[in-house]
Predict the 3D structure of the following.
Amino acid sequence: MLNKKPLLGLAAMSIFATGSAFAQPPGDGDDKTGDVVFSASVESQCGIEATEDKADLAFGENYNDSHATVKLVSNRNGIKVRAKEVKIESFDGQIQKNDVFFQSTGTTELDQSALGWESGVDITRAQIREDNHMNLFARVAVDESNLDADEDYEVKTKWKIECN
């Protein structure tokens, strides 16, 4: 005995599926286009990252080839880069902050004392887009013969950016 109800249901589903596969879009029968919109928003980004965090310190009027490198990130109008901290304790009072100079290359080309860098340097978004790596060179404007021998001297810095 064969039950005809399941076969009848299967045949009806087969006709429905076949009809669905050839359905036309509503409206004009020749219209085979449709809009698809993709959207997203970009989060605000602003920051600084030390990619090379150690370099040699030069003495006198010239910088050496050794430099630290920071990567600047900003998709805003621009930033202000500041030397937030400049620590010179290892010199035990033999120099002042105005004896410490930093030179930058890459994102911006500057050479100024630590006091100028503490005030901050404005950098535009266009400068960051062109080159977002800033190389920092450091020197102490004191001849090393005026410093105590056999001492390890260092200038510790902390850099900060303010986002515009």
